[in-house]
């Protein structure tokens, strides 16, 4: 790796969103959803290149309008409903390699992550470079202890998933975390070897719940806009 590692932001944005049609470019607080991710990446100063991987010409045009590069369109094989994020990243890095371009670091930044701040992306890069990890990703804690979670049968009957915790106090149970669903910084050499983002050499940073929101339904969308306005004004 060079003294100053080269880095690329890869924003995967296919055109076939099912749960919220055209989610990647639908207006979120006055601008296309993907614009928030592009702007954060450009403002972070953490990348030599900010690119969008898409199979959709309209998404490509919007991405370029907001300052991202779209040097090639995604293949059909990497744009179907069953394609994984890793497949998309491998294709992008492979396409760059065919043109003689190689990056030491990369960040998979989702196009539906309007809560991402430039400082978080810059911090993720520094955390990766200063660690033994091959990947750094943001996580947040579950708001309720999963160790007291329930199963519900069709007839409405409930049972504890962890009955041994029936009488445990919530404050005595360990905090459980989940993927914030925003970005993954990774060392490209390790990723090209292992093809995984969440493995034994994955580290994390913790984000507050206010900065995390899944956006998979119309209800999620409305809540995200309310939280975003509260956080960013």
From TrEMBL:
Q: Does the keyword Lipid biosynthesis apply?
A: no
Enumerate the InterPro entries for this protein: CMP-NeuNAc_synthase, Cytidylyl_trans, Nucleotide-diphossugar_trans, PseF
What Pfam families does UniProt report for this protein, alphabetically?
CTP_transf_3
Q: Which UniProt keywords apply?
A: Nucleotidyltransferase, Transferase
Q: Which GO terms describe its molecular function?
A: nucleotidyltransferase activity
- Which CDD domains does its entry note? CMP-NeuAc_Synthase
Q: Which domain of life is it from?
A: Bacteria
Q: What is this protein called?
A: N-acylneuraminate cytidylyltransferase
Q: What organism does this protein naturally occur in?
A: Pseudomonas mohnii
């Amino acid at each position: 790796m060079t003294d100053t590692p080269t880095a690329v932001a890869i924003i995967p944005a296919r055109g076939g969103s099912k749960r919220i049609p055209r989610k990647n470019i639908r207006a979120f607080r006055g601008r296309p959803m993907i614009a928030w991710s592009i702007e954060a990446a450009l403002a972070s100063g953490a990348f030599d290149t900010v690119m969008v991987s898409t199979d959709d010409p309209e998404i490509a045009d919007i991405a370029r309008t907001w300052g991202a590069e779209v040097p090639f369109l995604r293949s059909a094989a990497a744009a179907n409903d069953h394609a994984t994020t890793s497949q998309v990243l491998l294709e992008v890095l492979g396409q760059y390699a065919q043109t003689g371009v190689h990056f030491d670091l990369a960040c998979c930044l989702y196009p539906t992550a309007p809560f991402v701040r430039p400082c978080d992306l810059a911090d993720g890069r520094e955390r990766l470079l200063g660690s033994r990890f091959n990947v750094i990703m943001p996580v947040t804690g579950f708001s309720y202890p999963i160790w007291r979670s329930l199963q519900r049968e069709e007839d409405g009957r409930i049972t504890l998933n962890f009955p041994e915790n029936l009488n445990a106090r919530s404050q005595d149970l360990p905090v459980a975390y989940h993927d914030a669903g925003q970005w993954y910084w990774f060392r490209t050499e390790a990723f090209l070897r292992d093809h995984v983002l969440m493995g034994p050499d994955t580290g994390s940073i913790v984000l507050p719940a206010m900065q995390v929101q899944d956006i998979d339904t119309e209800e999620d969308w409305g809540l995200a806009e309310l939280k975003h306005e509260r956080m960013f004004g």
